[in-house]
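RETRY 2/3 - previous attempt timed out on the joint model. Re-submitting the same 554-residue input unchanged.
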Amino acid sequence: MHEADPHPFERRSVPAWLLSREDYTPAAGRERFLDKTIFSLLRLSALIRSQDTYGVARFHVDEIYGLLFTIALIVFLSLSRTFTFVLIVLSCILVRLCFIRIGALKNILAVCLAATIFSALVLLPAALYGNTYSIIMIPSKVFASVALVGIFSHTSRWNDITGTLRLIHVPNIFIFILDITIKYLTMLSDFALSMFYAMKLRSVGRPGRKTGKGGGTGARIPRAAVSNVAGNIFLHSRELSEEMYCAMECRGFSGAYPRTAFWKFSAADAVYVLVNLALIAAFFYLG
Amino acid sequence: MIDLNGISYYYQGTDESLSRQALDDINLTINSGESVSLLGANGSGKSTLLKLLSGLIFAEEGSYAFDGEAITKKGLSVPAFSKRFHQRVGFVFQNSDTQLFCADVYDEIAFGPRQMNLGEEAVKERVSGIMETMELDGFEHRQPYHLSGGEKRKVAIACVLAMNPEVLMLDEPLNGLDPRTQRWLAELLVRLNEAGKTIIVSTHDLVFVHEISKRAVLFGEDHRIVADRVTDELLGDMALLKEVNLVDKYYHHHPGEGHNHFHDHRY
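RETRY 2/3 succeeded.
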């Protein structure tokens, strides 16, 4: 059998250039695009993965209370007409931020400041016309609202958040789509990262002219190949969704998506609920 | 050629408490023309080491020198040095899907040679030569995404070989390959090694290790190197392989019986 049917590779020759050492000197030239893209994807990936483990906040509040009171406080903040109430909420936020680790704290403050500065810029014309109250009140409310959302998202696992949605009777299909989105964000960002790594490893020079079909991957800067990466990610996500659909069919998926979530109540939850109830009472007292 | 001294690497989390160690105090020297297998259980650090050797990640502790030159983040920020290094060190990823990003197989293989500014005639010659070697004749206009697993792996290897690297690193190259393609890949690696290429392969397949490499480096679950020996000698140390979870009472081999193969005792 072995003599009559030699392995096909044995009939193939290896090109001479592959057996000799490559004499290649790359041209000088800086290409930071791929490095910047890889760095952004790494940051995104680290952010998503950090959701896997508790430990961002020094004490953990159950997601159901976090979700309910975050929504409630944002509504009361937007309805409030007294700056005193906003200041009280801001003080409580400051105390809460003290219990958050430095990495998460930086992220929350960066987003809050960006949103606050943007809202202040939008309101600047009103201030020039004498409405100084709005330029203090509205950016303060924006800061508080964004900080509340930031604290909640940085101290809660996304999976647990979607689980608690069930307790407030959000439809199953909505929770299912959210869960799958979170899972696919991780998988597709890892996929994209590997593709950019592969592109970086093979970007060993600067071709002088566009030689790829349609100026595609042979372009001077691999930037043009990014569209191909995006296309591949789209194809990959479609394939994953088809496979998942088949797997769900095989497991008898009938549209129901049960997520188990239970009410829990710890000492941290008790403090959190009491403070928030006091804030709501302050809203009704101060207006 | 490759010299690692006291390398440790951690995957960073958003803060220190979420960091995870992947490599611990790795000391390893690989000479030009060697064929080395990296063995170890899942999560022992083999893939991380390959990423580090290819300059994709950098160690927090220890040093890495390639051909006498330090490979650091700062060093690889110099474009000419970085490009030359990446041309000399080829890396075939575990998942071929992530390595193929062009519209068709021809453009995919031509990407590297075009980056090297070879000229379209030379590129064509190089692409057709490597396609013939890799049994990819007639695949020029096929879309990489629609190829089978084995064909994708062949294209991914062809893409790297088209740049004619001195070091070829493959991460779990047998994943998803049928036995015939596995045999083909083993023979290709042996021929490339005989031609002077340095081959570094990370794998769990002990038969494949025996076929392609003369030296095997074994990683423990504590992310350290627990053995660095001649392949036959390492594969014969059942107690050690058992300790790092690479064999069990069902899957092992019988040394000293005139042939070396691992087999399953359940059947």
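Residues 109 and 159 of chain B are 4 Å apart (CA to CA). Closing ticket.
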